[in-house]
Amino acid sequence: MAIASYLLLFFEKKAEKFERYLSSVYIYSKNMNSPLLELIFLSEKRKDLILFLNKGPKTIEQIKKYMNSSAVAVLPQLKKLRDESLVFKTDDVYILSPLGVAVAGRMQAVVNLLTVFGNCYEYWANHAIDCIPLSLRSRIGELCNCTFSEPPDRTRLFEPHREFVENLAISKRINGIASIFHPLYPSFFLTLAKKGVDISILVTRPVYERIKEEYRTEFREFINFRNACFYVCDEKIEFSHAVTDSFLSLSLPFSDGTFDHKQDVMGFDPVALQWGEDLFAYYRDRSEKITEI
User: Fold this and answer.
1) CB 3.0-4.6 Å disulfide test: which of 63, 139, 162, 287 passes with 231?
2) Do 223 and 260 belong to one domain?
């Protein structure tokens, strides 16, 4: 089992304490009988050295500056990497070996995964990440630069998050998935369509039926815009999500299936946006496009 897959399974089990997560990484390395895993992942310095050298050959001065360390602290770590044939030294230049290049290519994904879960362990441990399709869940490390929305005050718990609405309002293109219904959304998205925003909305069948029943006029007007698309998916979807030309929002349910009204995952970097686009495309390809009612 790949270490990234192991870590996903580990977090899906919702360990009670973060210390268990750290010890499991170590135990996993021991069970794999791989001194190489221990060499790299049980030392922040060696891990950082490999990722730094993956960007190209470096002198000892460049390495010291990047690591913010003295030669006394850096050289023993470089020696260990050289002893394992991960790093070569030519004159005063250090470079990854072919083996080191292969290892570094796999490491970044694992580091990103650790960063995602480690930065806000309680959130991921208490939410149902298993509701994300496997193909996207295996890439969840791409959300390593994401943050979290500010929880609304107690008088606005069930209103859309301020950050979410503000970012949508300045977007030129929006792809959104809704597994729950909110009465403010039909008029809000219709307003955006009228402004010329390129907008695609995908909902579950129950949400669609409610929109048709209670907001038929707004819905008919929405789907008549050339810049608006509407999809209905019969597969089980438990999260809500939006991705635009500038930000990503992901709302996951709690582990017991109840919807979290307080906190969303927010991302703004290109890698996170592409992850969001791919998540939308996954369900769009499994949905029916609605062109008339």
Assistant:
1) 287
2) yes
For the cut 70, the answer to whether the pLDDT of residue 96 exceeds it is yes
Which of 10-14, 16-20, 24-28, 31-35: highest mean pLDDT?
A: 31-35
The Cα–Cα gap between 44 and 101 comes to 18
Report the distance separating Cα 181 and Cα 179, nearest Å: 7
25 — pLDDT class (breaks 50, 70, 90): very low
Most confident of 21-25, 66-70, 231-235: 231-235
Q: Give the residue from 119, 149, 184 where a domain finishes.
A: 119
Contact in structure between 49 and 81 (CB atoms under 8 Å): yes
Secondary structure, 3-state, the chain:
CCHHHHHHHHHHCCCCCHHHHHHHHHHHHHHCCCHHHHHHHCCHHHHHHHHHHCCCCEEHHHHHHHHCCCHHHHHHHHHHHHHCCCEEEECCEEEECHHHHHHHHHHHHHHHHHHHHHHCHHHHHCECHHHCCHHHHCCHHHHCCCEECCCCCHHHCCCCCHHHHHHHHCCCEEEEEECCCCCCHHHHHHHHHHCCCEEEEEEEHHHHHHHHHHCHHHHHHHHCCCCEEEEEECCCCCCEEEEECCCEEEECEECCCCECCCCCEEECCHHHHHHHHHHHHHHHCCEEECCCC
* pLDDT confidence bin for 260, thresholds 50/70/90: confident
**Same domain (yes/no): 30, 104:** yes
